[in-house]
Amino acid sequence: MNDNTVNKNLGVGYLVRLVNEVKSERSDFEIFTGTEQLYVPLLLTGGDGGVMALANIALDIFSRAKTAFENGHLKELALGFMGIPINRYVRRPLQEDPFNEEEFKKILEEVGLI
């Protein structure tokens, strides 16, 4: 981390104030999020992007969101934008998933990691 990096956990309400205050003082200062859930709200409030772990395996999702935002297609930034169904019910608690080491090794071999 260099001297110009600030690490903060932010809520959406705080983003508006943060972006407005920072950008009014330093228009060249870029604000990024590391939290997937704050990516779209940050873009909408004037932030610049994100560095999220999920983007390493699902870059197309964040790429489409950024492109939709830049083109003014704000409806595409809604929750269902990725084609992932949003269910309005409480899901069952997480259950322990039996780990199959052989199956896991096979998957790693198929993607070239071992």
How does this model look, in words?
The protein has 114 residues and is mainly alpha-helical. The protein has one domain. It is built from four helices and two strands. The chain has a two-stranded parallel sheet. The longest helix has 14 residues.
- Whole-angstrom Rg: 18 Å
Count of discrete alpha- or pi-helical segments spanning 4 or more residues: 4
Q: Strand pairing plus helix content: what structural class?
A: mainly alpha
What's the main sheet like? 2 strands, parallel
Quote the beta fraction.
Answer: under 5%
**What share of residues is helical?**
25-40%
Would you identify the regions where 5 or more consecutive residues have pLDDT less than 50? none
- What gap, in angstroms, lies between the N and C termini? 31 Å
Helix-strand sequence:
HEHEHH
Query: Which descriptor suits the 3D outline?
Result: elongated
Q: How are the strands of the biggest sheet laid out side by side?
A: 1-2
Arithmetic mean pLDDT: 77
Tally the structural domains: 1
E-strand count: 2
Layout of strands and helices, then pairs:
Layout: H1 12-25, E1 32-33, H2 39-44, E2 49-50, H3 59-70, H4 101-110
Parallel strand pairs: 1-2
Labels describing this entry:
114 residues; mainly alpha; 2 strands; elongated; Aldolase_TIM
